[in-house]
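User: Just a sanity check before I run the rest of the batch. Below are the structure tokens for the first item. I only need the designed sequence back.
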């Protein structure tokens, strides 16, 4: 059995493309072309060159000595926080902007919640000189003013979504409406391993550079390609998909996904999708999502804006259901404490999303000679205010 996508766009029971008829031609064009385009040597060369010189890859695999001593195991941090724009999201937007160019698209749309994916998209549009429209809930525009300013400085147009709860799901609806109205010249850049097939697979392949690098970096440092564990936080699941990718079918590598439990799994204020979720359809794919008994999507909550998503990508729904990955729920307080601990022990201020992955060390014990790789998905600059408020700094 493989944990990768099958030819029909499914991961076990999850995935597929549940989209309005009007969107079919757009998604079908992408589905028919994405693997062919990605396999072209000129595409590979352009992608790798930008990852190297623009993003700053390979990102280091750093042996965290003091953190390792504290937890009596061998901990390596995969430093996605050192990428240009401060997180792993840029790996995917670089890939998709090149894809859009190869497909002859001149206009890029995206939706964003906290603004991180909007910034990563605006960045690559500036890089390529392509028009960029980012849909964002009107409430999120107010809450995330610095990222709105960044997008504007990068030349993007930020369009407020004023319907519904004025947050991410309303922005998504606006983006889909735009794409239906502009099927020929527009590419929709989705920011995680979510959405209709082929998006989850395409995004996972772009993020797979993370585990491709871990393989040779670990070979250099430890004389073997495979760690015993890989830990990553899961919002939609793209940094986890990238960190797991080349190890999905290696049973000796144990995969651990950290989900945001917010104020606690049973508090009603949580984003622990796999624990609380039921099968359903969100953003065009069948997956696990948080919903009421009559199928209404529940508003998620997490202190970390990047994990505040009611669903999880279909790859992760399958990893959960088949028990290939272990899912661990981390509360706001646990994540914040582990984030601060990394600051003090290693001199690295992590994104609060990444702090959820670090908090797994408080819940699970590893053996002294276990090699544990943690995906440090992003840096904490964007979260300074939240850290200040939480710790009264
Ligand atoms: C967006 C974000 C995440 C969550 O997204 P995934 O698709 O689950 O990776 C995690 N960490 C950081 C730093 C982010 O910006």
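Assistant: Here's the designed sequence for the first item:
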């Amino acid at each position: 059995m493989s944990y990768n996508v099958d030819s029909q766009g499914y991961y076990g029971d999850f995935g597929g493309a549940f989209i309005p008829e009007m969107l079919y031609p757009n998604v079908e064009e992408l589905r028919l072309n994405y693997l062919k385009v990605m396999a072209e040597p000129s595409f590979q060369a352009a992608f790798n060159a930008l990852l190297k010189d623009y993003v700053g890859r390979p990102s280091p695999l750093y042996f965290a000595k003091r953190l390792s001593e504290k937890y009596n195991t061998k901990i390596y941090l995969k430093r996605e926080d050192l990428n240009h724009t401060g997180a792993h999201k840029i790996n995917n937007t670089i890939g998709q902007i090149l894809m859009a160019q190869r497909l002859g698209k001149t206009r890029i749309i995206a939706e964003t919640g906290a603004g991180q994916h909007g910034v990563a998209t605006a960045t690559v549009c500036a890089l390529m000189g392509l028009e960029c429209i980012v849909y964002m809930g009107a409430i999120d525009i107010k809450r995330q003013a610095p990222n709105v300013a960044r997008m504007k400085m990068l030349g993007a147009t930020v369009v407020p979504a004023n319907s519904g709860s004025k947050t991410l799901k309303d922005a998504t609806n606006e983006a889909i409406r735009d794409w239906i109205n502009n099927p020929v010249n527009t590419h929709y850049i989705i920011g995680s391993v979510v959405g209709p097939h082929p998006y989850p697979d395409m995004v996972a392949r772009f993020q797979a550079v993370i585990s491709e690098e871990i393989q040779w970096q670990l070979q250099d440092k430890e004389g073997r390609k495979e760690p015993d564990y890989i830990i990553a936080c899961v919002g939609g699941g793209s940094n986890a998909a990238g960190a797991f990718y080349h190890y999905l079918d290696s049973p000796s590598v144990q995969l651990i996904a950290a989900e945001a439990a917010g104020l606690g799994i049973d508090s009603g204020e949580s984003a622990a999708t796999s624990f609380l979720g039921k099968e359903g359809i969100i953003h065009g794919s069948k997956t696990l999502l948080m919903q009421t008994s009559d199928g209404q999507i529940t508003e998620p909550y997490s202190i970390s804006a990047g994990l505040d998503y009611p669903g999880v990508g279909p790859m992760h729904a399958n990893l959960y259901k088949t028990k290939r990955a272990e899912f661990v729920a981390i509360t706001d307080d646990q994540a914040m404490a582990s984030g601060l601990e990394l600051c003090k022990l290693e001199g690295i201020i992590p994104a609060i999303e990444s702090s959820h992955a670090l908090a797994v060390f408080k819940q699970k014990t590893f053996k002294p000679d276990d090699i544990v790789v943690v995906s440090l998905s992003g840096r904490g600059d964007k979260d300074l205010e939240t850290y200040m408020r939480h710790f009264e700094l």
